[in-house]
Structures are given as structure tokens and as C-alpha cells.
Amino acid sequence: MTQQTHLTHEDTATETAPTEAARDPRLLVTAASPRGWIQALRRNVRGGELGPVPVVVGLVLIAVVFQSLNDRFLSPQNLSNLTVQIAAIGLMTTGVIMVLLLGEIDLSIGSVAGLSAAVLAVLAVRHGVNEWLAILAALGVGLLIGLLHGVIFAKVGVPAFVVTLAGLLGWQGTHLYLMGSDGTISTSSSGPIALLTQTYFVPFLGWAIAAATLALYLVCALTAERRRRLSGLPYRAPVQVLARTGMLALPLIGGVWTLNQYNGVPLAFLVFVGFVVLLDLVLRKTRYGRMVYAVGGNAEAARRAGVNVDLIRVSVFGIASALAALGGIMLVSRNFAASVSTGGGAELMMAIAAAVIGGTSLFGGRGNAYSALLGGLVLGAITSGLLLLQMDTSVRFMITAAVLLIAVILDAVSRRGRKTHARGGA
Amino acid sequence: MIAGAHPADTGGTIAWDGRPVGIGSPSDAQRLGIATIYQDLALCDNLDIVANLFLGNEQLHFPGTLDEVAMESRARELLDSLSVRIPDLRVPVSALSGGQRQIIAIARSLLGQPRVVMLDEPTAALGVAQTAQVLDLIERLRDQGLGVVLISHNMADVRAVADRAVVLRLGRNAGDFPIAETSYEEIVAAITGATDNPVTRRSERTGASAVATKDH
Question: In whole angstroms, what is the distance from residue A221 CA to residue A211 CA?
């Protein structure tokens, strides 16, 4: 009695050919022709799924502007330094992204990075502990702090904002206490700590890493698409997989080539990118990652589906703080010293800003690990470009603020776009 | 009570397949094969359809990674069997209409292969076309041999798909009607506590002054 015309039509269609009716014609087009890809792209833009496009456009814009103002900006040496500079804050950003995906915030990462730097320096220099052990201890301290924050947030129910605000103050205090009367503790310039950021791979190794990554990606993508085809699901044609591999190869080969012009691929940058890739795989391919997104999207729904929400929250805060500690270790490595100001400056703001600029939503549940890389590159490029132009920190802060604001506006607008787009579905 | 959200009062039995059972928690109900879809659906807007269908119940292959292909084909089969047409299983649930979301929530409950599906106001927030979509699905569930308990205050919906209407008024069973032989007015009368007899209506009014249109 309440049947609509299009519904009855659908019923007759499904009776005659149930599988055919279930396939989306638009999707088949998408998999087949370039015109379909453009249509899909337009759909995504309208639906507010912009992906990394705005950030990449921003990066190109920044590169063009700074290169035209100072032709040393795109020199291999400057780019190589840039990759090492962003590694420390970039690692902190990867942690922040995990927390943002939950729809929460961690304000303590700067202080945790500072404290772990102090722990590292005090253990390695004052107490003469083996540097590897000192690194492990610093990481452990970070992990424990994160777990503590997580437990207070998840089990006691104190808002994460307040827990980590207390952490911001408290751990900075602990950091100053540990440093004692020394303003700075210099670390050895040749031990494992220093090598973290002083190691560069010989050109051959850089190429080998790039080739292995590409080959692995291609093989995995091809087998995955083959499985989809055999299961009768919509799949990407091999040509499309090759095209995507090419898209990946472009920055990869370009990057390795540029870095090889100078000293080779820096270990610090590789560690950073390695963590980004690892985090991306964990988030997209594992049950744990799925649960993180679910808790960020709708914690109550996740709970009803049997997800241990508290465990996810505690573990995410633990991982975030451990990554912040690793960032602190990188800071020590690059400066050959831990000081009372390590991690106490703009690091926290920059790490959160990088995550948002990279495209991770502040509203939870949306974003990916690559935001850390993209956002870090944007902020690093701005910093490095302004340094070349001998501009002051004041200018850097103002420009960074503008970029951050643009990123958040894009996030909010695309969010609204998705909402209105949702009405269009039938 | 059937869903296990609230424990039953003592002094009565719940019979399942003819033998008495105790339902103390939602998981008890699920074990018996009773799936409940609550009014708020409990979907994660940011996840795609496949991820929502399998949330908390993901299929895995090789050390702990998600088997997306298996999940997607299973989801496709399931939605095909319900004759549900959803263009792309990889769109986030936030991009779906209210009716489609309701359908996904129902489909999600079917993955556990239940025997009875209980729906709490599935059409409450939906437009006319979407309501029709959901009612179609309810009919298909019935045709597949599943028991469907539809909780609704919308008489048009109830009459469209139900075989029997049971009216609960103020926590008591106020009537069990075969839809085919019952008029709209008779059911409404049972719901509001009125009957066609002015005398009983008067005594009813003195007994209970509040008018509950729906209860569970």
C-alpha cells in the first residue's frame, strides 16, 4: 500500500537478475575508463572527500613561492636538511593523529618529548648508562606516561583535554626537576643517539629501499585486485594499479634522487616515514585500526559491537606518548644535547598543526597516517623557506597560523559538504 | 525483556521453542538467536558499509589483517539476498539516507544468523519512500522464515506488514489481534485504552488516567 513506483520497479529488476541489479553502474564505469575516474573525482569533491589534494597543492605552491624568492630553497642540501628537521616533530605528529582519530586531544606530547629527552640525557651522560638502554628507557617513560593519561581518561572519565593539560604542566615540571641546575646536558657526538640523525644511507641503499617499496606495493596491489576480481567484486584494472604505482613512484624516486645529490637518504627521515607507513598499515589493515576509527566515529556503537573502548583509548594514548618520546630522542640527537627548553617551545603546537594541515579531522574518526608526512612537510617547508629569507620566528608563526586556519576551514567545510551530500542518497 | 536489555520480573516464563529460558543480558538473547535493532541504529558514520556490517566481528586472514575481500563479498551476498540495492559498499555510512542506514543496521543484525529480529521504531524518522523501503525489507525477512517483532506506534506500518498486532498498554497485554480480521479502530481502541463501549471506557478512565500509545 505504501509502495513507491521506483521500489516496485526495483523489485521486478531484482527478480529477473538479482546480481546485475545489485551492481552499481557508476562503479563499473569508474573501474573502466578515464572519464569514469573524472566523474568519481568530481563525486568525491562534491561529497567533501578531498583527500590529500589540498595539501599537495599547498606544498607545490609553497615550493614555487620560496624557490622564486630564493633559488637555494629547492637545492638538494636544503631539502635534505628539511627532511631531517621534520623527523622529530613528525614522529610526535603520528602520535597526535592516533589521538585525533579518537576525537580526543593530547596536549602533553611536547612535555613528554622534553621529559624523555631529559631522561635520555641524564641516564646516558650523568649515569653513564649504555646509550641504547637509555633510549629504551626514555621510550618506556613515554609509554608509561601515555598509559597513565589513558587510564585516567578512559577509566576515571576525566576529559582528555584536562588530563593532558595537567600532563603538559606536570611533565614539564618533572623535566626541569630532572635537569636540575644544568641548563643543558650535552650528549656524545658519536654514539647511537647522535647517529640517529647523523646517518645517511649510501645512494645504492636509498635506491634499493625505493625499489623494494615499489615492488612490494605493486605485488600486493595486484594480488589484492586479482582476489577482488575472482570474488566478483568491483576491482581496479591492472592498468589502474600501474598508474597508482606510478603516482607513488614519482615522489619516491624524485625524493631519493634529490637526497642522493647531497648526502643520501637520512636515517631520521626513514625512521619517520617508516613509522608513518607502519601506522597507516595498522590503521587500515588491522582489526585494531578499525576499532580506533570506530571509537572515533561512534564510541557507543563501537561498545555495543563488542569493542573494548577503554582498552582502545588507553592503548592509543600510550602509543601517542611513546611516539612523542621518540620525537624527543630525535630532538636530542639533532642538537647533541637535551636542554631545559627541549620540547617546551612550539613543538606541541607544530605537531598538532601538522596533523590538521595534513588532513586529519579534529572531529574524530577521519584522517590517516600520511597527514603526518604531508603536514610535516608543509610546516617544515615554511620554516626552512623563511629561514632562507632570514625572516623572524614571528613571521613564521603568523604564516603557520594562516595555513593552519585554512586547513581547519577546509575540514569544517568538507564536513558540511558531506552532511548535505548525504541527503542526496536515495 | 526479549532483547535482554532489562531482566524480566519473576512470576512468568519466557518460552523459546517450547522450553522455558532465562534471558538475563543482551548476549543471552543473541545466543538464542534474537537480534535487536535499537532506534538509534548504532552505526559508525565515518566507516564504510562493509566496516559497519562487520564491526566487532571482522573476518581476518594472515596474521591479524582484515580480510576485506571476504567481508565485502559476504556483505554483497547478504544485501543481494535482501534485494537491497546500495550502489557502493565502500561509501561511508554518513553518505546514506535514513532508510538505507536502517537497512544496514538490520542487515548487520542478520550476519549473526538470528531467528527472530526485533525492530524498535524502524520507520520513526523516515520519509514515505524510505519507510516503504524498510517495510519491503521487513516483508522479505518474513518471507525468509525469520520471526519479526516490529515495535511501532504507526498503525499504517503495522497494518502493512504485520500478521498479528499485540498491544501493550501500561506494561500489560491489552490485546492480541490478527491484523486481517481487525479494523484500524479496534487496535487504536486497545492502544488508547478505549473500547467501543462507553461504560467500559468510563471504568477504564477511572483505572488509568494516563494515555500510553506505545509501550515495551
Answer: 15
* Angular region, A425: left φ>0, alpha ψ -120 to 50, beta rest: beta
Nearest-CA distance B74 → chain A (Å): 10
How many Å apart are CA A363 and CA A297, to the nearest integer?
9
Q: CA-CA distance, A20 to B80, in Å (whole number)?
A: 10
Q: How far apart are CA A370 and CA B2, in angstroms?
A: 46
**Is the model's pLDDT at A14 over the cut of 70?**
no
Q: Give the largest Cα separation in chain B, rounded.
A: 72
Q: pTM for this one? A: 0.82
Q: Which residues make beta-bridge pairs with A266?
A: A200
Q: Do A231 and B73 touch (CB under 8 A)?
A: yes
In chain B, the residue whose alpha carbon lies closest to the alpha carbon of A304 is B42
pLDDT in tens, A296-334: 998 888 888 888 899 999 999 999 999 999 999 999 999
Confidence (pLDDT) at A18: 38
Domain residues of chain A, as ranges?
A: 200-265
- Span A179-200, average pLDDT: 86
B14-16 and A184-186 beta bridge pairing: unpaired
Are A388 and A78 a contacting pair, CB within 8 Å?
yes
Least Cα separation, residue B179 to chain A (angstroms): 15
What DSSP line would sit under A185-224, residue for residue? Answer: EEPPSSSHHHHHHH-B--HHHHHHHHHHHHHHHHHHHHHH
Residue A325 makes CB contacts below 8 A (sequence gap 6+) with A112, A113, A115, A116, A138, A139, A141, A142, A143
Phi, psi of B169 (to 5 degrees): -125, 120
How many CB atoms sit inside 10 A of residue B109's CB? 18
**Cell triple for B99:** 532508510
pLDDT for residue B208 is more than 50: no
Estimate to the nearest angstrom the gap between the alpha carbon of A38 and the chain centroid. 27
ipTM > 0.95, yes or no? no
Cα–Cα distance measured from residue A359 to residue A372, given in angstroms and rounded to the nearest whole number: 9
Query: Once rounded to an integer, what is the mean pLDDT over residues B181-210?
Result: 62
pLDDT at B205 over 70: no
Q: Is the dihedral of CA A251, A253, A255, A258 positive or negative?
A: negative
Say which of A26, A27, A290 has its CB closest to residue B58: A290
